[in-house]
What does this fold into?
Amino acid sequence: MAGRLGSAGGAAVLAAMLGAAPLAGLTPRAEARQARVTRDVLAERDLLLAQLALFDANAIASANLALEKSSNPQVRQLAMRMVDDHRQHLEDLKRWGGSPSMDIVVAELTQPRGEQGMGGSGGVDGGVGQSMPMQRADARLERSVGHAQQHLDVLREAQGPTFDKVFLKRVVEDQENGLRLVKQGQATYKNDGAFALMLDRTGNLADRFLQRARGLQESLE
It folds into this structure.
C-alpha cells in the first residue's frame, strides 16, 4: 500500500513538493537516506489521506444501509444528505491527492466480505521493500478498515426502530472520529496551507453531520 508510493525518482519530485531537501548533489548513501526519509513522510501523509477516504466511504456505506432499512423520514433525509456530501468530499479528496491506499480502502467497504485485498501481514505489497513506518501505516489502516467493517455488520443486523438508534449512534461516533483525524492532521500539517484548508472543509463536514445526528438522537429518545 504505502510501498506503492513510488521509486526514488518519484520520491525526488515529491520531496520538492513537501519542502524536503533535493537529492541532486548528494552522495549515493545520502541520496538513499533522503529517499527513505521522503518515502516515510509520504507514508504518513498517505495514511492520513487514506483514513479520510475511509471516513467518507464508511459514512456512505452506513447511510446507504439507512436508506435500505429505515422508514423514519428524518433518518432517511439525513442518510441521503450524507451520501451526497460524503461522495462529493471523497471526490474532492481524490482530486486533491489521490493514492492507491485511498482506492483500496474505498473498495474494501464496497466489495463483499472475503473479496477484499488488504489482508495478510504484509499489506498489499507483502511488506517487500517497505520501511518500518510504511509497514506500520499499512497495519494501522488495516485495523481501521476492519473496525469499519465490523460496525457495518452491526448495522446490517439491526432492524426497525432499533436500526435508527444504532445508525445514529454510529454516525455520531464516526463523525467524532473524523474530527479527531482532522485535528491530528491540522497539528501535523499546520504549515501546509492547502492541506490545512482541505482539513478545515473536512472538519466542517464532520461537525455538520455530528450535530444533525445528535439532534435526531434526542428526538428519538
